[in-house]
């Protein structure tokens, strides 16, 4: 990540950020704040947050797709 982006996140007290992808595009982020202890997040925690972000992307894609299918069905019925 570019230093400027890291500084921007740090200014917002975010210590760990994972992107949420929908249809191959970054659509949002999951962010965790700085720990009170000041300790860094370990690899397992980073992996967990990345997995949560990935699953959110899948769920949002599915919800978006089902909404589009539902709208198509309604339009088709109304002709």
Q: How does this model look, in words?
A:
This protein is α+β, with helices and mostly antiparallel strands and 79 residues long. The chain has helices at residues 3-11, 43-78; strands at 14-22, 25-33. It has a two-stranded antiparallel ribbon with strand order 1-2. A hairpin with a 2-residue loop joins strand 1 and strand 2. The longest helix is centred in the last third of the chain and has 36 residues, at 43-78. The mean pLDDT is 83.
In brief, what are we looking at here?
This protein has 79 residues and is an alpha+beta fold.
Question: pLDDT under 50 segments (min length 5)?
Answer: none
Overall pLDDT confidence: 83
Main β-sheet, in a few words? 2 strands, antiparallel
Shape: globular
Query: What is the number of E strands?
Result: 2
Number of alpha- plus pi-helical segments: 2
How far apart, in Å, are the first and last alpha carbons?
A: 50 Å
Helical content class: 55-70%
Main sheet: strand order: 1-2
Q: Topology as H/E string?
A: HEEH
Indicate the proportion of strand residues: 15-25%
Structural class designation: alpha+beta
């Amino acid at each position: 990540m570019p230093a400027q982006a890291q500084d921007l996140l740090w200014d917002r007290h975010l210590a760990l950020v994972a992107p949420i992808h929908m249809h191959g595009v970054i659509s949002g982020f999951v962010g965790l704040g700085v720990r009170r202890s000041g300790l860094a997040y370990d690899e397992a925690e980073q992996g967990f947050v990345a997995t949560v972000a990935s699953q959110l992307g899948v769920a949002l894609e599915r919800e978006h797709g089902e909404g589009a299918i539902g709208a198509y069905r309604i339009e088709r019925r109304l002709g």
